[in-house]
Here is the input.
Amino acid sequence: MALIVQKYGGSSVGSIDRIRNVARRLVETHRAGNRVVAVVSAMSGVTDRLIGMAHEVSENPPTRELDMLMATGEQQSIALLGMAITEMGFKARSFTGRQAGIFTYGSHTRARIHRIDPAAVTTALDEGYICICAGFQGIAADGAICTLGRGGSDLSAIALAAAVKADLCQIYTDVDGVYTCDPRVVKDARKLPVLSYDEMLEMASSGSKVMQARSVEFAKKFGVVFEVRNSMNNNPGTIVQEETPSMESLVIRGVSIERNQARLTISNISEPVPYTAIILSALSDAEINVDMIVANTAHDGHARQSLTMNMSDLGAAQAALQKVLPQFGAEAKLETEAGLAKLSVVGVGMRSNSGVAATMFRALADAGIETGMIATSEIRITTTVPAADIEQAARVVHDAFHLNTVQE
Ligand code: ADP
Ligand code: ASP
Ligand code: MG
Here is the structure.
């Protein structure tokens, strides 16, 4: 008898019919002799709608109240799923984050999991229940409901799988697995049968939102092997696990895109001032995540620094930096550029193969696509491109690495 954790995302529970479909799948897994824990997201669109309502009431809603509100989305779906399973004649019990023993720490709306005490869930499993846990939520030490960041049900599922020592952790979504690029953007993208934690992490953090990046980090840390699959069919999905030597045989595993990027540049900085420290401290105090950073000193001794960030942070970043601008001299200037996107290629094979960047930038240049800031890690190369060109950029780079044809 195996213990299986199955996570169903928003589109998998997006309607009453879909909820019945999930109920059937859970019952089938249970009837096959397994102990089953489901982790469920809010119905698709619900979290966005709740956030929208909060912003109608308040320009800057208190994050404690925002968490209280957002957590209701998942509570709707666990209750409906519990009813659907009961209606089919099987025992089901729903659990909020608190009831599932998910304890968090850190800021509201992006809390972290501190520990999980799954005793109530395992007792219910022992009593023959199918357990249905609300994703995305947990409880802080002061008793407040906290959420785990957008896409956080992935994290709930992986953390619960680790806590109950699941034999299998399956992440059900609306595509067959992790593809070489978002299949909605590159039509001939291929499903990857297997992927290393590091590749999945780099893809997730560079825009492949099929998995929440933090959940992959957690899976790597605790060695939770998981499979990304489609909730509407029985096709094998993508297994994400520790790297194996054969994985390096492919140079590039996938291409990621991220839209809604902006660049902010401070120029004419009169040196000497520790400008990078000042800029990054000001942004960190304003709780803004900076992505790429480029600094250089011009011939006339003036320095210049550019940073990229999510478009939604640009206004707050501008406000924070206006305050420190006088420290950079009277001529210092702050400029912004919106309408950017990021394109990344990812693969562990990059470590042992040269020429990856050359292939990528040649393909973009041949397509007449302008590139901007560049950042790299050991297994990723990222560049900014104009937002209007991002889909074409993804396609030409996908083609340049023959990702539509390469066999495992
Ligand atoms: P869920 O609601 O199940 O959590 P998400 O919308 O968060 O689902 O993630 C699934 C979506 O991720 C897919 O519909 C797909 O458009 C997108 N996606 C982005 N990059 C990739 C990729 N490399 N492989 C598969 N899907 C991807
Ligand atoms: N409902 C939450 C969100 O939309 C969490 C999740 O779906 O994973 O971000
Ligand atoms: Mg998701």
About this structure: The mean pLDDT is 95. The first helix runs from residue 16 to 31. Residues 98 and 314 are 35 Å apart (CA to CA). The radius of gyration is 23 Å.
